[in-house]
Amino acid sequence: MNAGGLEDPSDYLLELVEQALEMGVYPILIIERFHAFVDIVDDHLLSTLSTLRSLEHEFQITTIAISPISYAQMRKQMAPTSAFVSSSYGDNHDRAVPTPLSKEDFVASAILRGLKTGEAYRLYQLGGGPDLFYERLIEAKLSGEADMIGATLASLGDHVATFMKRSFSEIMDGSGEILARLGLGALTLADQSILQANALKAFVVKETATGSVASTPILARWAIMNGQPDWRGYELSMEALQAKDYERASACLSEMHHAHPRLKCFSDVVNLLATLGRGVDIGMLSVEWDRVGRSATLVAGNEHTPVNVRNWACQLEGYSKMIAAAFGKGERAQLDKLTVLADDSLHEAMLIYFVSAFIEKVKKLQSATAKVKALATVPEAIMQGIGAARCNIKYTSAPELDQSLPYADFFAGPGKFRVPEVGAKLDLTALLVVVSASLRGTAPDTILSDRTKVVKLQSKLVQHVRNPYAHTSAVYDEQDAQYLIDVSEDLMFAWKAGAQLPTTANPLSEAVPTADYLIGLLYGDFAIDDPTPETAGWSSVERQSVS
Q1: For the segment 116-134, what is each residue's pLDDT rounded down to a tens digit?
Q2: Is residue 392, in this structure, part of any structural domain at all?
Q3: What's the average model confidence in pLDDT over 229-258?
Q4: Which terminus of the chain has a smaller tally of CB atoms within 10 A, N or C?
């Protein structure tokens, strides 16, 4: 019973309105959570709403009802428990549907929070959904998060699920298939029809040249994570990628049935990374190039592969074909059979990339002896490559050498240096002497320009490292390992100094897609709007990543 002694809420409502009108006050009732009626199972509900409707029709009160769901959705949800389902309350009301935050309002807000104008425009491309999504996205950007979509989702917590359950129950009540397709950007015509019937559709989907897709990568990622029953496998793979454990990342996907070509593309990229990232004792310079070629072909041929990843895969595919062409069927790929081809600029660039990446991989080994054994033949291979590329000298068969060159200046002894005869095979000592003498005065200053360093290389590298490795099962300490690493890097610098390398990054190191980049492939975060006038001058990578 209320303060006026009235038991029926509709009587109390009539009394309040009457008192207000007698005082000359026109009442405006604002119901901020009109959808809360869904959870009310009360005998007075229908009579109260009927009274309210009558008062409105008599122009004695104006009601503003705020709800994230429509009357039709409320009736559907209340049908099992309440007569509200048959009430026509609200059918004759004017309806105002909010729209997502505009670009202008977002940019203005982001600038006030401290972002630069360009950053604000770029960040807007990742936004969508309710205003809270935009707010948390700005916070993630200001916090310097590398994975802004993931950080935004984490900060939103249960808000996304609450919004979707209230406003899009037609999606959430199902088996999750529509949700998964929303996250994958693969909505069917039937799915699109369901979404188009919802007044708040602009918060969830947007139209692109290929049809309806999630309004924001934030929602797309949430949808795919909650709609795919086996999504945990992809998350575990992503965690392994973050740790650069490529074999584990690949193993997490080995039994997966990929529900979309983009997920298959992600899996193929991970398998390619795993093939490239195997241990230092497998394949030529730790790479099984026949497997790389097959994996790279799959990645390059998938229409969902991002441009940068496709270019990377195409480069690896091309190198695999070059290696296959250099060896006969069934012939084992060996580095010293490729170094003689370094007089060709394409082969030279390929070899420089391969050897540089291998040195970096070896540096990560824990054992000093393992490092030395892995690099023991690398300096000789580098000298073979420099000889072929710069001096037209192939170590397998010496050409007629200029007898007037200062070979003696670079020879450590003992005795007098004997110039190799035509057709003779050049060992490491002969390469160090002949190549250094041939390059004197014609190449940039490097380790091979320094007579003292070349002489020391013959005594320490050849006699104390290379020869013991070839003829004994020697054990080496960290000092030996670091020496060999330094020598290999110095010789690589000498090789690169005179090379005409392409502008592309090394596909075995710098150009390898990072885990943060592959997040975009896995979750579809690359599917943003076309560039705006403010972003038209940016590269595709800049538009796809605002971090």
Answers
A1: 999 999 899 889 999 999 9
A2: yes
A3: 90
A4: N
Statement to judge: residues 57 and 140 lie in one domain: no
- Composition of the chain by helix, strand, coil, percent to 5: 55, 5, 40
Peptide bond just before 414 cis, omega within 30 deg: yes
Number of domains comprising the chain: 3
Identity of residue 272: L
Task: Say if residues 349 and 499 touch (Cβ distance below 8 Å).
Answer: yes
pLDDT digits (tens, 9 = 90+) for 324-374: 998 877 777 788 889 999 999 999 999 999 999 999 999 999 999 889 888
Q: Is residue 152 part of a domain?
A: yes
Residue 546 within any structural domain of the chain: no
User: Whole domain around residue 37: which residue ranges?
Assistant: 13-85
Within-domain flag for 517: no
- In a shared domain, residues 140 and 192: yes
DSSP-derived letter for residue 287 is: B
* The model's pTM: 0.72
For residues 429 and 423, the answer to whether their CB atoms sit within 8 Å is no
Question: Beta strands 211-214 and 205-208: pairing type?
Answer: antiparallel
Residue type, 36: A
**Per the structure block, which two tokens stand in for 385?**
């490559």
Residue type, 89: Y
Return the structure tokens found at 400: 């007629």
Question: What's the pLDDT tens digit per position in 264-301?
Answer: 999 999 999 999 887 776 556 778 888 999 999 999 99
Name the one residue in this structure whose structure tokens are 């199972």.
41
- Is there a single domain that holds both residue 298 and residue 377? yes
Closest to 261 (Cα-Cα) out of 249, 269, 272: 269
Q: Three-state SS across 209-241? A: CCEEEECCHHHHHHHHHHHCCCHHHHHHHHHHH
Do residue 219 and residue 71 come from a single domain?
A: no
- Report the candidate in 183, 185, 168, 261 with the shortest Cα–Cα distance to residue 220: 183
Assess contact for 201 and 195: CB atoms under 8 A. Answer: yes
Q: What is the pLDDT of residues 173-224, one digit of tens each?
A: 777 888 988 888 888 899 988 888 888 899 999 888 777 888 998 999 999 8
Q: Are residues 420 and 314 in the same domain?
A: yes
Instruction: Report d(CA 418, CA 395) in Å as an integer.
Output: 16
* pLDDT, position 534: 43
Cα separation, 470 vs 373, in Å, equals: 9
> Of the candidates 507, 480, 79, 493, which has an alpha carbon nearest to the alpha carbon of residue 289?
507
Res 358: pLDDT: 92
Residue 309 has what pLDDT? 92
Indicate if 465 and 347 belong to the same structural domain: yes
74 & 167 share domain: no
From the list 143, 82, 79, 78, the residue with the least C-alpha distance to 113 is 143
Q: Which tens digits make up the pLDDT trace of 86-103?
A: 555 555 667 778 889 999
Q: Domain end: 466, 496, 526, which one? A: 496
Q: Are residues 28 and 107 in the same domain?
A: no
